[in-house]
Design brief:
Blueprint lengths: L5 E3 L2 E3 L3 E3 L8 H9 L4 E3 L16 E3 L4 E3 L8 H14 L4 E5 L4 H11 L6 E5 L6 H4 L7 H14 L4 E5 L6 H10 L4 E4 L3 E4 L1 E2 L4 E2 L5 E5 L4 H14 L4 E4 L5 H10 L3 E4 L2 H5 L3 H15 L15
Parallel strand pairs: 3-4, 3-16, 4-7, 7-8, 8-9, 9-10, 10-15, 15-16
Antiparallel strand pairs: 1-2, 5-6, 6-14, 11-14, 12-13
Helix pairs in contact: 1-2, 3-5, 5-6, 6-7, 7-8, 8-10
Length: 304
C-alpha cells in the first residue's frame, strides 16, 4: 500500500481512508477493528458535554441508492468517551480524530478542553449534523458568523489541529470553509450527511421515528464531490472528503477533486466491514494501471 501513504497536517497515514464519525460505534475495540480492516485512521463518534440517548427507533434504513439515519448524536458524554480513546491508543498507533458537537460556541470550547485531555491527534468540530434540528435549531454550518466564532473558541482551547466539519447542503459551503480557515481552522471535513426522509407507502407514514434524517451512501457522493471541488478552489488548508465513497473509483475521484484524506462510513452497509481494504486495493490497482506513483500526483488534478 506504499502508493497510498498520505501525509496530513504533519501526521503520516498508511493510506488516506479514515473511518467517518458515527460509524461502528464509540468503543476502542470497534474503532480498532476498522483499522484492522484497512482504515488508515479513525474518527470517533461525535461526543458532547453530557450524555445523549439519541432518538427512539427506528433510527436508520437503507436502499441500493442511499442510507438514511436519525440516530440523534447518541453518546455517553465526552468524559466517558475519552476513556475509550485512551484504550484505542493502547491497541494501535493509527491516527485518531476526536469529534465533538455542542449547542453553543462556549459549550464547544468546554468540550474541547475535556477531549484534549485524551490522546487524540486531531479534533473534528461537527457544526453540521442535519438530524437534530428540533433540539439545536438550524445547524451552525449555514451561518458564517457562527462558524467563525466556534472556530476561534475551539482553537483557543485545543491542543491539537482543528478540523471544521461542514455540510455540502450549504449553498455557500466554499465561502463558509474560507471563513473557518481565516478563523484558524487547520483543515476542513467536507462534509456531513444531508437532510432527507423516507416514507413507508404501506404503513403510510415516515420510516424514521424522527421523520427526517441524514442521507449518506452512493446518492450523496456527487454532492460531496462538488463540495470538495469548490472548497479546494477556495482554501489552502487540507480537506477530508467525506460522503458516499463506496469504491476505489469514488476515492480516486475525491482525491482528484482535492481531498487529502477520505472519510468512509456508510459503505460498510453496502460492502461489509472490510470495505476499507477493498477500496484501498481498488485504488492501488487503478494507480498501477495508470502509472501513478503517489496520490500527491493526482491531488486536485481535476482543476487543471
Amino acid at each position: 500500500m506504499s502508493k497510498l501513504k498520505t501525509r496530513f497536517l504533519d501526521k503520516e497515514f498508511k493510506n488516506p481512508i479514515v473511518l467517518a464519525s458515527g460509524i461502528l460505534g464509540l468503543t476502542a475495540a470497534s474503532m480498532n477493528n476498522a483499522v484492522n480492516n484497512g482504515c488508515g485512521g479513525v474518527t470517533v463518534k461525535s461526543v458532547s458535554k453530557d450524555a445523549r440517548p439519541g432518538h427512539p427507533n427506528p433510527t436508520m434504513t437503507g436502499t441500493d441508492h442511499y442510507f438514511i439515519n436519525a440516530v440523534g448524536l447518541s453518546n455517553p458524554s465526552v468524559a466517558e468517551g475519552i476513556k475509550e480513546f485512551a484504550k484505542f491508543k493502547e491497541m494501535t498507533n493509527a491516527p485518531l480524530v476526536g469529534s465533538i458537537f455542542a449547542g453553543t460556541p462556549d459549550e464547544f470550547a468546554e468540550v474541547t478542553e475535556i477531549i484534549c485531555q485524551s490522546p487524540i491527534d486531531f479534533l473534528e468540530v461537527n457544526v453540521s449534523c442535519p438530524n437534530v434540528s428540533k433540539e439545536f435549531g438550524t445547524p451552525f454550518a449555514y451561518d458564517t458568523k457562527a462558524v467563525e466564532v466556534i472556530t476561534k473558541k475551539v482553537k483557543e482551547k485545543s491542543t491539537v489541529p482543528v478540523i471544521i466539519k461542514l455540510t455540502p447542503q450549504a449553498w455557500n459551503v466554499a465561502e463558509i470553509a474560507k471563513v473557518a480557515e481565516d478563523a484558524g481552522a487547520d483543515a476542513i471535513c467536507a462534509g456531513n450527511t444531508i437532510s432527507g426522509m423516507a416514507i413507508d407507502i404501506r404503513a403510510r407514514k415516515p420510516v424514521l421515528h424522527n421523520k427526517q434524517g441524514g442521507v449518506s451512501g452512493p446518492a450523496l457522493f456527487p454532492v460531496a464531490l462538488k463540495a470538495v471541488y469548490d472548497i479546494y478552489k477556495t482554501v489552502k488548508i487540507p480537506i477530508i472528503g467525506t460522503g458516499g465513497i463506496t469504491t476505489g473509483e469514488d476515492a480516486i475521484a475525491m482525491v482528484m477533486a482535492g481531498a487529502s484524506l477520505l472519510g468512509v462510513g456508510s459503505a460498510v452497509y453496502y460492502r461489509g466491514q472490510d470495505v476499507f481494504e477493498k477500496i484501498n486495493n481498488e485504488m492501488t490497482e487503478f494507480m498501477k494501471k495508470e502509472n501513478i506513483n503517489s496520490l500527491e500526483e493526482i491531488r486536485g488534478i481535476a482543476h487543471k
